[in-house]
């Protein structure tokens, strides 16, 4: 019998180790697939740049611009939401669900184990994959295009603004990403079958309803409709600088993200009772 029915660090370590050992082949396959995908796309973009400069007779330095990082960020968002929708993939079939629920660990420990893999380890994996793919691009094109100096992507381009480090936009975008991923984590415990598609469908439906209601209220409250609303919104936002807007965004999305994580945990805890049969 478990003496601590909420959290035991030793028991959690055993559970986390068990989850990693059971899924290491799948995780490694996803890691290698993502590495190959990013490397191929990075090489394709770099080859296009090199060929363009050779066509115009230029042999200057090739600097990896924001296009590499922007593509990697887009893939990071998409895969992060997809991984979030599979946080409770073990609940899909009755056999795996019973085995998962009967594992001698608490609900919080099971949730935390999945949370660390989906949220934290994914961040480390995507960063490592990006750097490996980027340096592979540099190594390949340094050999095949000796007339060019191929440089790795500079991540500081998204931090330094006008020569001054500005971390607020990065933290703001990261808080927005965590919010969207948390929605897919909730979807993974609400729907065991095709949670990614169903979460997107529900999100689009809610967004369309919001647009309709928002448009009706704008037409009702503002004489010139949307034009008047945009004008007054811009004048209001101009009262704040960019850092303040990002700070408010971080607080807003962080609060909702924490709420979504808590909601997903309590929904999972409830499912341990409902879905044991």
> What is the distance, rounded to the nearest whole angstrom, between the alpha carbons of the first and last residues?
21 Å
In terms of structural class, how would the helical and strand content be classed?
Answer: mainly alpha
What do the pLDDT scores average to? 80
Quick one: biggest sheet? 2 strands, antiparallel
Count the E strands.
Answer: 2
Spatial ordering of strands, largest sheet? 1-2
Give the percentage of residues in beta strands. under 5%
Radius of gyration, in Å, reads 23 Å
Could you estimate the helical fraction of the residues in percent?
A: over 70%
| Quaternary status | single chain
List unreliable stretches of 5+ residues: none
Q: Please work out how many helical segments DSSP would assign.
A: 8
Order of SSEs, N→C? HHHHEEHHHH
Shape: globular
């Amino acid at each position: 019998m478990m003496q601590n029915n909420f959290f035991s660090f030793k028991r959690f370590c055993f559970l986390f180790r068990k989850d990693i050992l059971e899924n290491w082949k799948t995780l490694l396959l996803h890691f290698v697939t993502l590495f190959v995908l990013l490397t191929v796309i990075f090489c394709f973009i770099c080859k296009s740049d090199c060929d363009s400069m050779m066509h115009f007779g230029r042999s200057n330095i090739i600097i990896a611009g924001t296009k590499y990082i922007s593509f990697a960020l887009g893939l990071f968002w998409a895969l992060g939401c997809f991984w979030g929708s599979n946080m409770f993939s073990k609940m899909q079939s009755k056999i795996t669900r019973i085995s998962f629920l009967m594992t001698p660990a608490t609900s919080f420990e099971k949730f935390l184990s999945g949370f660390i893999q989906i949220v934290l380890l994914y961040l480390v994996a995507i960063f490592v994959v990006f750097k490996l793919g980027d340096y592979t691009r540099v190594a390949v094109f340094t050999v095949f295009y000796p007339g060019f100096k191929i440089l790795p992507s500079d991540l500081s381009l998204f931090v330094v603004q006008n020569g001054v480090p500005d971390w607020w936009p990065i933290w703001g975008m990261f808080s927005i990403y965590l919010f969207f991923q948390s929605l897919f984590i909730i979807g993974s415990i609400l729907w065991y079958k095709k949670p990614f598609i169903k979460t997107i469908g529900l999100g689009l439906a809610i967004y369309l309803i919001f647009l309709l209601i928002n448009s009706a209220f704008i037409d009702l409250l503002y004489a010139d409709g949307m034009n008047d609303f945009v004008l007054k919104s811009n004048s209001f936002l101009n009262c704040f600088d960019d850092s303040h807007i990002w700070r408010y965004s971080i607080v807003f999305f962080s609060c909702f993200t924490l709420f979504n994580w808590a909601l997903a945990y309590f929904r999972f805890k409830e499912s341990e009772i409902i879905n044991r049969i």
